[in-house]
Amino acid sequence: MSGAFRETVTALLARPDVGPVLVQVATTLVSLVMILGLYALARSLRLGGDQRIADADHAKRLAEETWPGFAATEVTLDRARIGALVRNVEGRVLLIRRHGARFVGRELTTHDGIRLDRHTLTLETGDRQAGTLTIDLGADAQIWAASLRRLIDPARGAVA
Amino acid sequence: MNATMLSDFATRAATVGVDVVPFAVPFFILTIVIEMVWAARRDPTAYEPGDTLTSLAMGLGSTVAGALVAGLIALVMGWLYAHRVATVPVLWWTQWWMWIAVFLLDDFNYYLFHRSAHRMRWFWASHVNHHTSQHYNLSTALRQTWTGFPALSFAFRVWPAFIGVPPGMLLTVGGINLVYQYWIHTEAIRRMPRWFEAVMNTPSHHRVHHATNPRYLDRNFAGVFIVWDRLLGTYQPERDDDPVRYGVVHQLGTFSLLTVAFHEWASIARDLWRAPWSAKLGYVVRPPGWSHDGTRDTSDMIRARWLAGQEQV
């Protein structure tokens, strides 16, 4: 650090109207660098990993975790095992999808936003945070697309 | 350190306040690195880089938000202290047992705040971000709120100034309380010795608090001493036959900082807009999950339904 720069910084730090702000900004920048360093370390250690839905039983367990008491009767798995559709005895359907190293579930309440393209289904749950997911269900795609026309909307208690 | 220096330090801590959090930051970073290495060897899914980045950025944002409003909170505390109803003898804070008494009072106030933060949606909107991670590691501890000040959460902790507790003392013990709660956010420690588990908040107790399992919902609100939960009926021990799942009942499914920080406020705003006039207040002051038409579930409803299912089994 050159002498002139050091003098300028010292003078600014000594000013009561500038010094505390300068310290706060410097602390924030250093913290930001630390955060990025920890993020880089987590990536370099390959933390999180590549999580997939192992099988239908795993998908049922994930549905039960999302919705305690959800008695799953039917399951279809995405071919890459990053998502699944699970239906219970009442005909209500949960979309399970991967989120980082964990999974999240959302109930499908309307057929709007569900698009079939040969073996893939593109699904919108109506929840902006959940976003859109395209899953490859193979031959199951057409069967499930047809059955999703009879979804139950819990808010209206009727077929949506 | 001799008695005079100790007395001077206690006076400074009580009057101006000593913020212990910055001193703990190197410890935070070092222990997160250690826990990451532990996770890489034992359970790589204990961390998720995107989740960690969100938690740490929330922590940084919370620090910045705190710095922006620190003056206002100090002003409120100063006003309360200036209008205090009791005046205690000068230098009473040099008595060590008074520090313990104030620490206990502040920890009880934390318990009240924390319980309210889970039982009233207004406070939940500010606190929920801390629970949005589906992981439970030391970085989760730093996933702190950006909106604590506008939610007026600080009211639970500043009122002792009105009965004569110096504001600096409250700031000092509040910082110590916050630092204590850092280390309990881990899966690396299974159980502490029985005597410790009986009195103190521990990783096991706090894992229960972060759980979405129906059995564990809205339990273990303690900050430092678990005795408050034991005394007030909100204690639930961790059970080996019911492994903890972390997060919130409706998992966010995103690492977006803005969503984590503000999603519940936005949700309250939408509900206030749509709800009939007679129900609007309920969406602010009733528990999270309450709805006027019964289409949503509160923690109590989820637990009751789960318990009914268990009885049938």
What fraction, in percent, of the residue positions of chain B are helical? 55-70%
Helix/strand order of chain A, N-terminal first: HHHEEEEEEEHEE
Query: With helices defined by DSSP (H or I, 4 residues minimum), what is the helix count of chain B?
Result: 15
Q: Considering residues with a beta carbon less than 8 A from a beta carbon on another chain, report the largest interface and each chain's count.
A: A-B, 35 and 46 residues
Inertia-based shape of chain B:
globular
Order of helices and strands of chain B: HHHHHHHHHHHHHHH
- The number of E-state strands of chain A comes to 9
Average pLDDT of chain A, to the nearest integer?
Answer: 86
Euclidean distance between termini CA atoms of chain B: 64 Å
Largest sheet of chain B: none
Descriptive key words:
heterodimer, A: 160 residues, alpha+beta, 4-stranded antiparallel sheet, 4 helices, B: 313 residues, mainly alpha, 15 helices
What this model shows, in words?
The complex is a heterodimer of chains A (160) and B (313). Chain A has 4 helices and 9 strands. Chain A is of the alpha+beta class and 160 residues long. Chain A folds into 2 domains: 3-44; 56-159. Chain B is mostly helical and 313 residues long. Chain B has a domain at 14-232. Helices cover 58% and strands 0% of the residues of chain B. Chain B contains 15 helices and no strands. Chain A binds chain B through residues 24, 28, 31-32, 34-35, 38-39, 41-43, 45-49, 51, 65-66, 68-69, 97, 99-102, 104-106, 127, 129-131, 154-155, and chain B through 25, 29, 32-33, 36-37, 39-40, 44-53, 56-57, 60, 63-64, 67, 134-135, 139, 212-214, 245, 247, 251-256, 259, 263, 293, 295, 302, 305-306, 309.
